[in-house]
Design goal:
heterodimer, A: 184 residues, alpha+beta, 3-stranded antiparallel sheet, two-stranded antiparallel ribbon, 3 helices, B: 136 residues, 6-stranded antiparallel sheet, 6 strands, 25% helix, elongated
Chain lengths: 184, 136
């Protein structure tokens, strides 16, 4: 009875051994696992140029702050101390389709143009938050989205000129800003 | 020295004070909020809320606007008659701008919201004029 099932048992055991279900004695690590630090050993001067974690910066003198050089185009107005600067924008507004009179169309288009001018002032002075997203599939752009937003409080902006032609109203608006308004 | 007809000067002074107050000093405070929305550069929605303040407002007086009452005594009616002037005044006072735009597959849509948060205005009624002063 025992001799009849012995070859099957041997074959089954060998299959289990080679498949990895029963670990062989040689695979068991005798020593506990040690993590290896693969961070390259750099001198302190080179560490400052790369984004190194704080732990690796031990023993080095603190790095000087990184300064970004921004080159502005020529004749770009810059707000200086004890001086004011005028910001000029042109806002555009369109009259709705279902107006009852040209006067109403003008009034509504002008209001829209004023709001657009306020938005432009806010964008120029405070800046715009931009978020972009492209979805590419099979080396082709399937969906492209750009979102922009701005939030600001605008005071003392003045209308310089208003033009209304063929349903489009353009409002030229200016605001005078001083350095002290932005000093913190 | 007392005048021959009794307290004539004193009564005259009291009458003049009563007359002055009845004619000129009729001050009250109003809470005003204004908001309008632009969708793709077209005016979409506009709302102006005016209500009488139920308690005294705190703050310092700043810019003021003088409007002709045209015989009206209701503040809302006076505002309606001079809507454009009043809205220009609100704009000068300061508006909060919120703008969001989205360009999806090169097609742009935008929403711009201009808001005057609920602000207290002191309103002085005179005979033919009304002075509106914002309290900040």
């Amino acid at each position: 009875m025992k001799n009849k099932y012995l070859p099957f048992m041997l074959v089954g055991f060998s299959v289990l051994t080679f498949s990895g279900c029963i670990p062989a004695q040689g695979y068991i690590a005798k020593e506990p696992y040690k993590s290896v630090n693969r961070m390259p050993v750099l001198p302190c001067s080179q560490k400052c140029n790369t984004l190194m974690p704080a732990q690796s910066m031990q023993g080095c003198t603190p790095c000087s702050p990184v300064t970004l050089k921004v080159t502005l185009p020529k004749n770009t107005p810059i707000l200086q101390r004890d001086k004011t600067m005028k910001v000029l924008v042109v806002g555009q507004g369109v009259s709705p389709m279902n107006t009852i009179s040209p006067a109403q169309a003008y009034a509504l288009a002008k209001r829209a143009a004023v709001a657009d001018a306020y938005r432009l002032i806010a964008e120029k002075i405070k800046g715009v938050y931009v978020e972009g997203e492209d979805y590419i599939q099979d080396m082709m752009v399937k969906k492209s989205t750009v979102r922009t937003s701005v939030q600001a409080m605008v005071k003392n902006a003045n209308i310089v000129e208003t033009n209304f032609k063929e349903g489009l109203c353009e409002v030229e608006m200016e605001i005078t800003i001083a350095h002290s308004q932005f000093a913190q | 020295m007392r005048s021959r007809d009794g307290n004539n000067y004193r009564s005259l002074a009291i009458c003049s004070v009563i007359l002055f107050y009845s004619l000129s000093v009729h001050a009250s405070e109003y809470l005003i909020s204004y908001r309008y929305v632009l969708k793709d550069l077209v005016l979409y929605n506009e709302s102006l809320q005016i209500s009488r303040a139920m308690q005294k407002c705190q703050g310092s007086l700043s810019q003021s606007l003088i409007l002709n009452t045209l015989g009206k005594k209701n503040f809302k009616q006076i505002i309606n008659n001079n809507a454009q002037k009043f809205i220009d005044f609100i704009h000068e006072n300061g508006m909060h701008v919120e703008h969001k735009s989205q360009t999806k597959n090169f097609k742009n849509t935008s929403v711009t919201i201009l808001t005057l948060k609920t602000t207290c205005f002191k309103v002085d009624f005179n005979e033919n004029l009304v002075r509106i002063t914002s309290l900040n």
